[in-house]
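Late entry, written up from scratch paper. The run itself happened at the end of the previous shift, but nothing got recorded in the book at the time, so transcribing now.
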Amino acid sequence: MPPKQSNEPEVPEVPEVDPPAYVVAPAAGSAEQSVSTEQNQPIHIRELEFVVTADDDAVMVSASNTLTGDMFVRRVSATEIHKGLFEGGVPLTLNTLQGFHAVVIDALKQEAGQSGTPEGVSAQTKQSAEEITITVNFQMGTGYMAMAARATIRVPLKDRASTDTRHTLALERMRREMVLEKVALAAELDAKFQAELQEMRAEIATLKELVHAVVTLPQLSPLIQICGQHPNSTSARGAHKQTSIVDNAASRGLHRALHHLVDELNLSVQGTTVHFNDVAVPVPSCLHLAILNIDLQDTTYLLDRGARLEEARPIGFDAKSRTMSYTPLQTAAQVVSLEIVQLLVDRGAITHTSEFTVPKGQKGDLVAGYLQQHGSKPVKRV
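Output as recorded:
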């Protein structure tokens, strides 16, 4: 027959936790255990640093004031401990060297705010000019099984720090405080900067959306798609009033606007014509406009975006030029920009089939010499 099953609920196993040394009674007739030195780590309570050590004869309580450098030391002998320093009913183990050592450490750790200290153990420390008073409180159990006791340990001053030591510690403290203030201020400024940067990014995103909303208006489409006129050009009477938004940005050197219109909104950089009184009027391309402004940055940008090197357009310098067309290289020669001439030649502009004119003067001579070195016909000076 199968074994009879029990209806009682299973009780989960509770892991065993070793109780503190001061609540475990020693075996009858056994010698007191040797004190562990693993707990002899400094315990920091405000400006005080405590170290509690023990040997086979006594518990040594040492404290140093990190602000003044004063040292306090108290040796609590095994005889004092056996006689009982606690007032009230306590386990016998508290009157042993090992138990007393452990409970003092746990009490100080509890006041220092360290985790893992047993419940029912606490301490209060108080410092005067001549001593440090440690009050250790112990509570265990409830009801008629409750135990409560208190021990007072006075740790007298042993060594008073010299004036030089106090000054050195004060300077070190000031340095630490200044570093902490600097770190806090840097964190505050960084947080403020990040908030302002985020706000600026949001504003920039809003402006970009507004530009996009404007340039995509159906009623503005004809104007936006025109490759318009340089503001100073008069190639056709009244035609200069018809200027595209891309050309306007190029002619005025608005670099960010030009980049946004071309890169983000995909507007064309190529030249076209405008219609005025039913007459098709060719106008400068965006590349011509950047060269007329002697703007190396926008000229380079437009070439990178596919502007045509050999597209001839009127530029409107004089009566003749309003009816004649000029390549970007011829335009660069007329504004005597050697840098732009060199850029256009490096990008493949043709020199040997065109006629070039430059103003008289040193700059014109430099441009003319460069063009002739690269295969052009003799350059005219005007």
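The mean pLDDT is 80.
(Scratch paper discarded after transcription.)
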